[in-house]
Amino acid sequence: MAPKKKGAKKEVAAAKFVDKESLRRAEVEILTLQQLTEQRTADALDARRSERNWRDRVGAYGVAIEQQREDTLDITSDMLRQYKAMQDQLMKQVDNLEGQNRDLQGQLKSKEERVEQLEEELRDERRGREAEVKRLQGTIEEMQGEFAEMLKETLDKMYDKLDRAHTEYQLQF
To answer: Which sequence ranges form a coiled-coil region, renumbered to this chain (predicted)?
Structure first.
């Protein structure tokens, strides 16, 4: 049985060698896995830090967006208030100007009526004057006729007197 022992020793030595080799491979594998675990742990920590930074930024952006939204609403409401105030002011101004326009239209109508009345009075006065002129021209023509007749009568009387005087004068000589 001795030969069996020699082969068994070789087998044990070979098994020990295989076990040592397996052990060394296992140790290398464990070291590799530990390094991989450490790398993944570091990566996970970096990822968590990045996530935390990202969340902080998102939170800050969210706050900034909310602040901007509130500012926008404030500005919008202020602009709307100013717009309504300006619109009210302009409507009052329009109403005031429309009132002034109505007053001025009324004054213009009154003035136009007064001008028309004065023009009618002027036309009536002209007609009256023209009638007076015609009447006076008729009176003048009548007086001219009477004067011409009186002058003729006077001249006729003078001619008669001169003729009588001439005849008397001739009779005397």
So the answer is: 80-168
